Amino acid sequence: MIRSLIAILICVCSLSGHAQQDEPAAYAVNEEFNLWNKNKGDMAYVFADVAYIRDNPGLYGKVIDSLQVGAPVIIRSEGYNTMMIKDFYAPWHKIEYLVGSSKKEGFIWLGLLAFNINKDNEGNIWLYGFNKYMNRSNDESTVNLCEVKLLDKNTNLIAKTSYLVTMGGQTYTDAKVFGNMGLEGIRAIHRVGFHGEACGISTEYYYIGWTGSDFVRLPGKSSVSDAGVFYYNEKLLFPSEHNLDPTLIIKDIEEGEVIDIDAEELEYKIKKKRTKYLWNGQVASEIIEMK
Q1: The whole model's pTM is what?
Q2: What are the UniProt keywords, alphabetically (predicted)?
Q3: Which of 49, 208, 226, 250 is most buried by its number of CB atoms within 10 A?
Q4: Are 47 and 113 in contact (CB under 8 A)?
Q5: What is the pLDDT of residue 22?
């Protein structure tokens, strides 16, 4: 009888040990860089349609509340317990938010918050963030799905769109909303940038237009340099900038490569190219010029 009780106790202790191992440390501090770049005291906004708030920083935490897209929160802690949830990694943060006039606190996975927020001339709110890329193939490990949401002044969802972005060491992201930049039929243009600050890491800009009812993909631009011996830069010009044909979007490309790396004063072999896009009020199509 005593031997049976001992065996049962050993089994229970063993199972308990395994259960504790499955649950991560409650507050494993995350010191890794992430694109959200949120610090204590920063304001942030919910990007997910519905974001669950938990009592601990992890999926094992109990759901204590939920917030809708566009809801403002204040970051109240450093990042904890980085994990992959929606096809990408992000840490958890303690946040503070309002429900009516009452302050509440809880933990949220950072991937449920927007990278940034902008407002257009009509007062509409633009949010962007990552979402799960459902159809990822084996050779798309650096590809992420960037989603853009447009809300009205009362944070009601007007429309949303998405596009694929290639990430390769970019260290921060920002966004800006322009007017129509001279494009007929466009009410606002949203630009997202993913910036590379190290040699050989490109900066990529993505543009979308809003017609008032639909999103339209517009040409983007890119730039990269490597240790001062090579550079590549694209400059995008809209009708209000080039003051030429109002149906044209122009991309000027300049590429430079050092002729003699050992020279006292570096000189570059420079190549220039101009690409034109025709805007017909609905789509921007590259113009193929015969040589």
Answers
A1: 0.87
A2: Signal
A3: 208
A4: yes
A5: 40
Is the pLDDT higher at 154 or at 21? 154
How many residues are there in the chain? 291
CA-wise closest residue to 275 among 251, 248, 249: 251
Name residues whose C-beta falls within 8 Å of residue 99's C-beta, 6 or more positions apart in sequence.
65
Name the percent of the chain in helix, strand, coil, to the closest 5.
Answer: 10, 50, 40
Q: Are 111 and 145 in contact (CB under 8 A)?
A: no
CA 66, 68, 69, 71 torsion: positive or negative?
negative
CB 141 within 8 A of CB 167: no
Evaluate whether 36 touches 113 at the Cβ level (below 8 Å): yes
Percent of the chain residues topping a pLDDT of 70 = 89
Inform me whether the pLDDT recorded for 252 exceeds 70. Answer: yes
Give the SS3 label for residue 6: helix
Rounded CA-CA distance 106/40 in Å is 14
Residue pair 250/181 in contact (Cβ under 8 Å)? The answer is no
Please state, in angstroms and rounded to a whole number, the distance separating the CA atoms of residues 215 and 61.
38
Query: SS3 of 70, please?
Result: coil
Q: What are phi and psi of 256, to 5 degrees?
A: -130, 140
Whether 216 and 187 have beta carbons less than 8 Å apart is answered as: no
What is the C-alpha to C-alpha distance for residues 7 and 4, in angstroms, rounded to an integer? 5
Q: What is the pLDDT of residues 126-175, one digit of tens each?
A: 999 999 988 777 777 789 999 999 999 999 999 999 999 988 889 899 99
User: Which residue spans within the chain are E strands per DSSP?
Assistant: 43-45, 50-54, 63-68, 72-75, 80-84, 89-99, 102-109, 116-119, 125-131, 143-151, 157-166, 172-178, 188-195, 203-210, 215-226, 230-237, 248-258, 268-279, 284-286
Q: Which two tokens stand for residue 10?
A: 């050993």
